[in-house]
Amino acid sequence: MPTFAGQPVIELRDVAFHYPDSDFALAIDHWIVETGEQVACVGPSGSGKTTLLQLLAGTLVPQSGTIDVLDSQISNANESQRRSIRLREIGMVWQEFALLDHLTVLENVLLPLRLDREIKDLRPHRQAAGELLRKLGLENRVMKFPLTLSQGERQRVAIARALVRTPRLLLADEPTGNLDPSNKRNIVDLLRDYASSHSATLVFVTHDHSLLRDFSRTVNIAELNSHALTAQDDANA
Question: In terms of residue numbers, what domain contains 12?
Answer without folding.
Answer: 8-99+168-236
